[in-house]
Write a structure and sequence with these properties.
The protein is an alpha/beta fold. Helix content is 23%, strand content 26%. The protein has a single domain (4-167), classed as 3-Layer(aba) Sandwich (Rossmann fold), CATH 3.40.50.10420. The chain has a six-stranded mixed β-sheet with strand order 3-2-1-6-9-11. Strand 4 and strand 5 (92-94) form a beta hairpin. The longest helix is centred in the first third of the chain and has 14 residues, at 20-33. The radius of gyration is 15 Å and the shape is globular.
Length: 168
């Protein structure tokens, strides 16, 4: 089995070859029709990086939307104020102040890959794993291109699986 670093490099290269806009539309439509999403009121999205699934259309579904903001080793939940600034990691983060994560019904978690046990391969910072460990009762889903669903990914004891995976 490849190690996490090798897989990250490989997947980042491979996803540049995909029609990510098309795949994003398919996944976005599936999420909009998903019963868990329909029932949820307060949802945390992620702002897509280049070549990443783009779910920003979900902001138009009448839900209260939040985005993550990283400070040090911590991930915070911030309301969608419509104004974003580039973070240290060159990711758009909201310019609003953090709120309590307890309000969230659903967290849409980014990943480079997932496996059949719903473990995800993230970008290596551990922000989501640390955050999800603190809030195990909030429903989680990872949107992913079917090309990046593996039988088994390398995992560490701190890795937290998501509840659901939605692919194209």
């Amino acid at each position: 089995m490849e190690n996490k670093t090798g897989l990250r490099t490989k997947i980042k290269r491979l996803r540049k070859e995909l029609d990510i806009d098309y795949k994003s539309c398919i996944i976005c439509d599936k999420i909009k029709a998903w019963d868990v999403f329909i029932k949820a009121n307060n949802i945390m999205l992620f702002y897509p990086a280049k070549y990443e699934i783009n779910l920003l259309d979900l902001r138009e579904c009448g839900k209260t939307i939040f985005f993550p903001k990283v400070d040090g080793n911590d991930l915070y939940v911030c309301p969608d104020c419509g104004i974003f600034e580039k973070s240290y990691f060159n990711i758009n983060e909201p310019c609003s102040n953090p709120i309590s994560p307890d309000i969230l019904d659903l967290i849409i978690v980014p990943a480079l890959a997932v496996d059949k046990s719903n473990y995800r391969l993230g970008y290596g910072g551990g922000f989501y794993d640390r955050f999800l460990a603190l809030y195990p009762d909030i429903m989680t889903v990872t949107p992913i291109c079917k090309e990046f669903i593996y039988e088994k990914l390398p995992t560490d004891n701190y890795d937290i699986p998501v509840n659901y995976v939605i692919s194209d």
